[in-house]
Amino acid sequence: MSHILSTEQELNGKPAAGADQQAVQVALRLRAVDRSDRPIVSNVSAVHASSGMVFVDFGFIEQQAIDEITRAMRAGTETTANIDGRLECRIAMSVGDIAQLSRQLQQVLAAVANKSSPLPAHAASDAMPAPGASLQ
Predict the structure, then answer these.
(1) Which of 19, 28, 45, 54 satisfies CB 3.0 to 4.6 Å to 3 for a cystine?
(2) Is position 88 within any domain?
(3) Does a structural domain hold residue 94?
(4) The model's pTM
């Protein structure tokens, strides 16, 4: 795993006057602490911005609740506007770190798209969120 590290000015979006900006690639090894290497299962996410920080919530909604909502929508009947799910993890990151994460995710999506076996049509639409969507 590698991570691109750059200057504080670049992360904040404010390049230093007259300074040459260069990204430095370093090998980064993250070591698990306690149970931090435990995979988190999530089927929904939400992103919230607040005063220089971005909060990314990963949650889980039981498949039964999703199925009930789908059946109600197909039948044209009223359904509850609130769904209870379980917050699995909340991550707070700076705007600069979110920008770096976005670049890394775009690289992963590009690599998946360039594989010899193309994604099924429904998988490609799932990979790219709708503009302005906050819950996928």
Answers:
(1) 28
(2) no
(3) no
(4) 0.58
